[in-house]
Design goal:
The complex is a heterodimer.
Chain A (H helix, E strand, L loop, with lengths): L1 E6 L1 E3 L7 E2 L2 E2 L6 E3 L1 H17 L2 E8 L4 H10 L4 E6 L7 H13 L5 E5 L10 H9 L3 E11 L2 E7 L5 E7 L2 E5 L11 H10 L2 E4 L9 E7 L8 E2 L4 H14 L4
Parallel strand pairs in A: 1-6, 1-8, 6-7, 7-13, 8-12, 9-12
Antiparallel strand pairs in A: 2-5, 3-4, 9-10, 10-11
Helix pairs in contact in A: 2-5, 3-4
Chain B lengths: L4 E4 L2 E2 L2 E2 L1 H17 L3 E6 L12 E5 L9 H15 L3 E5 L4 H12 L3 E11 L2 E8 L4 E7 L4 E5 L15 E4 L10 E7 L13 E5 L9 H11 L2 E4 L1 H5 L20 E5 L5 H7 L4 E6 L12 E4 L2 H11 L1
Parallel strand pairs in B: 1-4, 1-6, 4-5, 5-11, 6-10, 7-10, 13-14, 13-15, 15-16, 16-17
Antiparallel strand pairs in B: 2-3, 7-8, 8-9
Classes of the chains: A alpha/beta, B alpha/beta.
Chain lengths: 251, 315
């Protein structure tokens, strides 16, 4: 089974996101692996462990820092890693999807996984776009994939714990919501070992697409309301919350 | 090219989701400003399609599409777009709409604006406000070209504006269901046996800030002391720290308790969708800029573990 995982390196939302002009000030933010991509890597490795095969992880290197992410993917069980050197932190989903699709085209993938979404998918997610560019079907919100010969049994989640089971002919693209198991932990020593020994295949961006969105403005949302902030030490905060709950008959 | 706005509605078990009505209402406003029509598109069978306040409703009524099929939906919408050349196609930024919107954009070359909170007509085109980066930034973008694909966050527009009784026109599916590579096998019902968080008056809800499975116990203790139940945001459930039956939000359950005490949840739009109607929302988060503080009634920038432990001593 030949599984390709397309990943996205995105600005971390754990910290402040300063704006410069009409976009994020990319020089002032940390880039991290899209959290859903951890699940698509895990799902790919689980299938490899179940039926054999290879897992290739491919991503666009936007700021010259993708190597760490790719070493981590190798430590988690990927067999091969590829980076597309773009050096363009503002590359949108359409551009990245096009470059990824061109890189994946010759890989003979049976399945392509992508994270179901990313927090910077302003112009949509890369998964459905890669499917469109490669003329493969797409199914997102995926919570499990089992390979059976030339098709796969795919579970898709709907809201509220409901879902549906699908049979999907290969090749296809799946947007992974969550792997059947939590993403595995890779020990630092193993990641370090990969950094010393592994080879990262490097390719140049090929193909041309763009979001077609003219940026008018980017700013923190204008708050229509704000919480009444409870100040003080943790103990004081706790006391005020308990008092508030008691006054409302909730504690 | 027309100035019509197509709305791809969504339904499950014979019921349309609120976002369908919200989008139809918005489409009416946009179409009227552009001199076009708001066209509701209903794909699939087993549903009464005469429920929208659209200018017209198209019902692609095919028994083979009784369950949602992303490939079929994508091809049907692609065919409709070719036939009708609309000015915009609206999808929900939902578990079904997300499967098709970006695909249609890449397939047709039309721009896509996702996470849409608002849409307005500006100089014959649109300006879309999109809530990106987990709700931390709002991007205003103008889609270029003849057609825009816009994926709307649920809860962005009023439901009532889209409710009506326009009689639907049934049409055959332009797609041969037999040729599809994606086949719907069966529905999966929610797992039973766990507590129903939608029926609880008080929820202590934990997010990524809880840090690990070993810390869930602290939230359980606090919940017990308050007579509450523990619920969670998606990352906690995806990490396997709590079962999916406890998940609040877009891909989880919608709750409306008397108390929603949030520990370490930043308030991404997907989570807000499931809890913003709670009567009393109290949020504790270490990030003073967490979007949840724009929604919560009370908030504190504090260490959730210290606050939870101190509350336990007082209860």
């Amino acid at each position: 089974m030949n599984i390709v995982v397309a990943i996205k390196h995105i600005p971390s939302i754990a910290d402040d996101l300063p704006v410069s002009g009409k976009n994020v000030d990319f020089d002032s933010v940390d880039f991290v692996l899209n959290e859903w991509d951890e699940h698509s890597i895990e799902q790919a490795v689980l299938i490899k462990e179940a039926v054999g095969g290879t897992v290739t992880v491919v991503g666009v290197d936007l700021i010259g820092e993708l190597d760490n992410v790719l070493h981590l993917a190798l430590a988690k069980g990927a067999d091969k890693v590829v980076k597309i050197t773009a050096d363009d932190p503002a590359a949108d989903s359409h551009m990245q999807a096009k470059w990824l699709a061109e890189a994946i085209k010759g890989m003979g993938a049976n399945m392509v996984f992508a994270g179901v979404q990313a927090s910077n998918d302003l112009d949509g997610q890369i998964g459905p776009m890669i499917a469109a560019y490669l003329d493969m079907p797409y199914i997102g919100g995926v919570s499990s994939v089992e390979a059976n010969g030339d098709s796969a049994t795919v579970n898709k989640e709907f809201a509220g714990g409901a879902g549906a089971k699908y049979s999907v002919s290969m090749p296809f693209v799946a947007g992974v919501q969550a792997a059947p198991k939590p993403p595995r932990y890779a020990p630092v020593s193993k990641v370090r070992q990969m950094a010393q020994t592994a080879t990262i295949e490097t390719v140049s961006p090929s193909g041309d697409a763009s979001a077609g969105l003219a940026f008018k403005n980017m700013a923190p949302p204008v708050a229509t309301g704000h919480a009444e902030m409870i100040e003080g030490s943790s103990k004081e905060v706790a006391a005020k919350i308990v008092e508030l709950l008691k006054s409302k008959g909730l504690a | 090219m027309s100035n019509d706005i197509l709305v791809i509605t969504e339904h499950m078990d014979g019921k349309f989701s609120d976002v369908s009505f919200e989008m139809v209402g918005k489409a009416r406003e946009l179409a009227s400003a552009l001199g076009g029509q708001a066209v509701a598109v209903v794909i699939g069978s087993g549903v009464d399609a005469n429920v929208f306040a659209s200018d017209s409703t198209l019902h692609i009524d095919d028994a083979a599409l009784s369950g949602f099929n992303p490939e079929a939906y994508a091809k049907i919408v692609e065919a409709l777009v070719k036939e009708k050349s609309p000015k915009a196609v609206l999808f929900g930024w939902t578990v079904t709409g997300m499967d098709v919107a970006a695909w249609l954009s890449a397939k047709t070359g039309a721009p896509c604006a996702a996470y849409a909170k608002d849409i307005r007509v500006d100089g014959g085109g649109f300006v879309v406000s999109c809530q990106v980066y987990g709700g931390k930034l709002m991007a205003e973008v103008a889609p270029e070209g003849d057609m825009a694909v816009i994926a709307c966050l649920a809860g962005s527009f009023p439901v009532e504006a889209g409710q009506g009784s326009t009689a639907a026109t049934a049409t055959a599916s332009p797609v041969d269901a037999g040729s599809l590579k994606v086949k719907f096998v069966e529905a999966i019902k929610p797992a039973g046996g766990d507590v129903d968080i939608t029926a609880q008056a008080k929820l202590v809800s934990i997010g990524r800030g809880i840090g690990g499975k070993e810390n869930v116990e602290l939230a359980e203790e606090l919940a017990q002391a308050l007579g509450a139940t523990v619920s969670a945001s998606r990352p906690v459930v995806d990490a396997g720290w709590l079962p999916r039956t406890r998940q609040v939000g877009k891909s989880g359950l919608k709750v409306k308790p008397k108390l929603y005490l949030m520990l370490g949840i930043s308030g991404a739009p997907e989570h807000l969708e499931g809890m913003k109607s709670a009567e009393l929302i109290i949020a504790i988060n270490t990030d003073k800029k967490a979007p949840i503080f724009n929604v919560a009634h009370y908030g504190a920038t504090a260490d959730l573990f210290e606050v939870a432990e101190a509350m336990l001593e007082l209860l």
